[in-house]
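So, can you check this one?
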Amino acid sequence: MKKMRVGIAGALVGLALAAACMIAFPATALAAQTIDVSTLSATTTFGGTPGADSWIYMSGNRILYLYDAGPYTLTGTNGELSVLIQPSAYNAQLTLDNVNINYSPSFGLGLGIFANSTITLLGSNNITVSGIGSYAFSLNPGFSCTIQGDGTLTMVSQNDHGLDVQGTLSIIESVALTVTGDGSVGAIHNAGSILMGDNASLTINNNSGSQQYLTVDMAPAPDATTAYQWKLDGDATLGSGALTDSSITILIVNGGMGIISRELIPVAPTITSANNFSCVTGSGGSLALTATGDAPITWSLDGSEPAGVTITGSTLNVAATVPAGTYIFGIIATNGIEPDATQEFTLTVTAAETVKPDIPPTGDSAGVGLLAVALLITLGGGLILTVISRRRLNLE
């Protein structure tokens, strides 16, 4: 509590100084979007436009006060500098672009945050404090801060915690944070919430002389179909919870270095293509095979298929030489994640229809035989009448 009060007092002092000095802003204010901290030294400096992106560097205490939302970009190196985002800088936007700062006074802050803020990291950034009771990075109660980008930030305190979280800190995108604290208290003081998302990572160097516990929460996934799990490397182990839980407590042994990040939950394959196929002898055919799960997916047969049935890539091939019949065999999809998917597959090969040959015409007409039946009818007087009847016969 003592350290927190000191930090708040410093912020309030900054506000008072700003009020006293506001009339001293030049008519044409300096551009505040980019501040090269290497130029801040023995001279009190004002910059930006009040109400938009104003800032004051007080040479007496070597503190840079950011009063508005900005955006601000800090670059360069300064061997004695503290940066404070003031309560008036609501929704402040600050970019750290290859910044290296050190601060030595006791109960000071390398970077102190007293307003909701978004910090973007570019390149390699370092904040080191050496004074007693000083934090390299401090997020004060009631405020939220999101650290984003693809850069790195190393926070080192030689006499206290490297990272002090009393609000809600979100670490997202591809940022990589590394924290080292004093040997007696540990790297991180977490009285608030630390949320991790995307491909961000948090490295903790524990030189506290004892085990260090840290609770972290999973930031919301970008969509409902994406699921993540925790990934622990180095000396980081589970203190409580499961890797698939949204919140876990991790444990890092004394002298250990642990890395916390998250990864997509591996998804085993599930075959979604049809489990049957029909074709005709002499023609054959093919079927596209599909499955869900992590790519790449490899396809194979279980060995009980008939000769002439093969898989090329993700296509099932049936040769024209496969005899007529019904065949049952297995199709297997693998992607290195257990369990493999096996589908019972039915192949039906039907015999092709036989074409009947044409029969050439015979007799007095095609396909017709002539049957003559003679009926002899004897009439009076010895006259014989011959009656001939014709009947068509189907020769098929």
In short: Residues 1-32, 364-396 have pLDDT under 50 and may be disordered. Residues 2-264 form one domain. The radius of gyration is 42 Å.
